[in-house]
Amino acid sequence: MPGAVAAIKEPWRIAAFIMDKLYGSTAVNVPCGLWDLVPDNWQTAVQIARQQFNSPLSSSAGRLFDTAAALLGIRGKINYEGQAAIELEQLAADSNGIVFPYDISLHRQYEIDFLPVFDAMLLSNMTLPQKAMSFHMTMADAVIQMAEKIKEETGIDKVVLSGGVFQNITLSSLVIKSLQKRFTVYINRKVPTNDGGLSFGQAAVACAVINENRTKEMGRY
To answer: In angstroms, what CA-CA distances link 166 with 60, 83, 170, 200?
Structure first.
């Protein structure tokens, strides 16, 4: 995330780094909607990411959606949380698409590599709506394949879908429709699936700690 928190508000930063990661010095020659969105000093963001300076890693699926939106020229800066991903979903509406290639590898844990996805998306001759829909289909397929791998190894057949990315109706519908055939699927209903749910969990933990401390205090008398 070049520039740390700034990369959340300015998705072009991660997108520029992805272009550099994929194509190096020839990136500017690759047709990409991103080039209409970047500021004049965009290469600075790439340089600090190369040096791993003020560029923390993120495993957030939301950052992948932001990056796709920036690469397609949809949104380089956001005015509210989730704007880039929302506009990407709106663009995908009523369109068709394909599953782009991606990699799943096993290190200490399974990791999904989306670099091939961005490469295929940029080089495809599909329309922008088709590319947007294909990105959603690819993300859904990655979630499904990951669940299948874990089930094969552990026998676990229950899946909990949470996080802000599952506010995306297109993604959620694709994932749930497929997983329900082989899994018991749990989704948020009373608690928000995004940061609101996280805050609720933090409050629940705080209450539990407070009650435990009170119980210990009472036990001393």
So the answer is: 12, 14, 9, 17
Residue with structure tokens 């992805």? 18
Query: How do 184-187 and 158-161 pair as beta strands?
Result: parallel
Of 21, 5, 4, 11, the C-alpha closest to 113 is: 21
Using the structure block, give the residue that is written with the tokens 């990791």: 111
Is there a contact between 138 and 87 (Cβ–Cβ < 8 Å)?
no
Cβ burial 53-80 (10 Å sphere, 16+ → b, else e): eebeeeeebbbbbbbbbbbbbbbbebee
Tokens of 66: 């932001």
Backbone angles phi, psi at 53, to 5 degrees: -105, 125
Give the pTM: 0.88
pLDDT per residue over 164-194, tens digit each? 899 999 999 999 999 999 999 999 888 888 8
